[in-house]
Task: inverse folding
């Protein structure tokens, strides 16, 4: 809908008809806010809606809810749409088509995965279903499957609702988007807030009671009782429709687009979680499902589809999250990712303080910088700490984006006052140490 | 002492003798922490000492406290030192001289300025003197003179101690380092926390009672009762000694140095609040008294004086401060500064939210971006907001440092999660709007 809105800003309803089909019941909602709704921090799920269908319609965008596009004919330039409520299908012609089918949550085909009480989370309906379950059943034990961002946020949410929570992760560390040493700090943080952490533990299935409700999660290491289970295993691009239409798919089955968000097929554009982006540091194609990218891509697409010329410059994998009082952030490449990209990298890690050490509320922060050996170019950074830690990733992201060396970075004129930073901000100290190691 | 420490890291005591003369009683203390000591947030003033004379001595640096250098002979390569306690003077030879005389607080020669109860604040002794006065006299009314960073921090400190506080500023806005529109927001914040603000009001003198203690501040607009007065008028480079020695002074009487921190006089180096730096955006020479610059310059100097080759890359005027729950930040050039530098600039200001609007604790933030007309290059930014606002200046500082356009900046991959930011961070929205205006 970002693309539609941007197109509408540039072309009036007289100039351009814009029709959107959505198989769900909402438009423009913040899926990333769902864990906080489940946690009870946001009283109404509707608050996550940034722009309702009515608002879009008022702006001159035709929105059909509960309408699923089931086929695309790129030669005839038409789509086949099913009205889910009426149960009928019709064809709709287009001049330009925008594919913004997003992503679907990973849901392993394990025994019992469809039992009552086992939830995925992607839509507002999912969030409401979990919330209803928690209210109705008052479960005492929860298991969250998956130790990435969404899994951690859901585990915090369960914990926040007063439910004893276990987190199960197949890999030997939570937050596999961090290097193992930083992931270990996250594991410590999870344990410190009382979440039971089972690492290196695969889920085998889900046990149910005689009413069909989930009662336990079976893992390679034994059974974990649970009256509610949430799957936080991440997402994959929702591109079955695109593939069937002959749109070329790339890495992780994402839709291939150029930097104008156009696919290789004439008149077909795509943006959001379903497309492949370029990682500016490694140069590799990546699929990163994140609202920021989707919004920026939508703006680029909406401009270009109406005759403008904007470029999506790519991503560098910046991400932040909070788990209770702990903050976690990353940008660029980890050591592991640098190695996988064939880049000779070195890293340095420092422990510092979010404020001047003498100032009340100074909190611990660990910063890791990854730099290219020889040139000292900043490749990536990771942060784990308490309040005030995570958003420090932004200045590192800006530096990596601009291809700064760690040495030049360490000279930056950053904001300093005792309530905000030590004289040498921890990010500068980490860069300094990494520069020396390079 | 940063320079001395860096030199010592690079050269052993056998290789290089390092002697420091300090007329006070402390080394390496955080003057910027003094307002927080006065506020009662830091229990002991000694906590502001980052490295004591004993620690420096243990590292092999000879430190003479209560020793004032009263003359420099750059031809004979010696300094004249007065032992303040013994009252005797002696000559000390040098091979390389480092001038790090810092700054002196501005203290207008007004009637009554030397009365008991009228304080300046620069040294730990100053902070202790104010604290003692507040404890002993329990004043009910304070006047702080000066509406810049230090004045605001002191006004907050007095207010925090439960003293009814008035702030007097000669200019029509507080925080003259901001543009008037942003300064007005700061004025609102000051008023909101109950500090009485007198703008456009010059101080004429100080009234005393019959014991010689201050009892009021006389201003152009009338008399303000005060049992304690703190002068927070900022500082000027302490370069009388340097001038007498024939070192060339530049803007605001700062010592002229090259980017290796060497003065034009052979064997004489200088760093810290007493030197002139180069502003990377305007290209102009500036004097900015800030611990971050002093530390970085000290490191550069200490490296070069021991045969290395580092460059101080200049400054862009980044600064942050907090006044109770309000945060203020700036970097680069204001609209006013851009105009003064002869740069054709436009600005855009937006009101946003520090977190996703639906997330608890989302606070208001106002961001102003200044960009060059035509090119759209980012020249400066200003932020006023609540918790989480100020340190956002860093990503803007990194962008300005790298000469990014506002347009490119608005595409940056910054950290996003609902507890930390809306999908479009307010800094990106401000840059976007400024890019459109350019």
Result:
């Amino acid at each position: 809908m970002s693309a539609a809105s941007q197109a509408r800003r540039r072309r009036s309803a007289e100039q351009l008809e814009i029709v959107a089909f959505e198989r769900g019941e909402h438009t423009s909602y913040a899926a990333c806010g769902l864990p906080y709704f489940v946690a009870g921090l946001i009283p109404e799920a509707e608050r996550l809606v940034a722009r309702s269908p009515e608002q879009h319609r008022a702006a001159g965008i035709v929105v059909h809810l509960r309408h699923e596009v089931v086929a695309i004919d790129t030669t005839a330039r038409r789509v086949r749409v099913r009205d889910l409520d009426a149960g009928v299908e019709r064809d709709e012609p287009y001049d330009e088509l925008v594919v913004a089918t997003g992503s679907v949550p990973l849901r392993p085909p394990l025994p019992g995965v469809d039992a009552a009480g086992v939830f995925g989370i992607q839509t507002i309906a999912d969030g409401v279903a979990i919330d209803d379950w928690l209210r109705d059943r008052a479960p005492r034990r929860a298991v969250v499957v998956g130790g990435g961002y969404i899994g951690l946020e859901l585990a915090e949410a369960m914990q926040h609702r007063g439910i004893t929570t276990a987190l199960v992760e197949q890999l030997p560390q939570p937050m596999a988007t961090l290097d193992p040493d930083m992931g270990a700090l996250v594991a410590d943080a999870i344990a410190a807030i009382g979440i039971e952490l089972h690492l290196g533990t695969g889920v085998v299935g889900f046990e149910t009671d005689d009413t069909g409700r989930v009662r336990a999660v079976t893992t390679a290491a034994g059974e974990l009782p649970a009256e509610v289970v949430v799957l936080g295993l991440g997402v994959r691009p929702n591109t079955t429709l695109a593939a069937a239409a002959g749109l070329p798919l790339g890495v992780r089955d994402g839709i291939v687009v150029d930097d104008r968000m156009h696919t290789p097929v004439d008149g077909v554009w795509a943006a959001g979680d379903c497309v492949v982006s370029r990682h500016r540091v490694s140069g590799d194609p990546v699929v990163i499902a994140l609202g920021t990218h989707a919004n920026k891509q939508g703006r680029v697409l909406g401009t270009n589809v109406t005759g403008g010329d904007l470029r999506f410059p790519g991503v560098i994998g910046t991400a932040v999250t909070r788990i209770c009082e702990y903050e976690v952030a990353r940008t660029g490449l980890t050591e592991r990712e640098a190695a996988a990209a064939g880049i000779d990298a070195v890293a340095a890690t420092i422990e510092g303080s979010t404020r001047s050490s003498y100032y009340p509320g100074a909190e611990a922060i660990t910063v890791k910088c990854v730099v290219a050996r020889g040139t000292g170019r900043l490749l990536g950074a990771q942060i784990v700490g308490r309040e005030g830690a995570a958003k420090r990733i932004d200045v590192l992201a800006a530096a990596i984006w601009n291809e700064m060396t760690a040495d030049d970075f360490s000279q930056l004129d950053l904001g300093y006052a005792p309530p905000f930073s030590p004289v040498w901000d921890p990010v500068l100290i980490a860069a300094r140490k990494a520069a020396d190691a390079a």
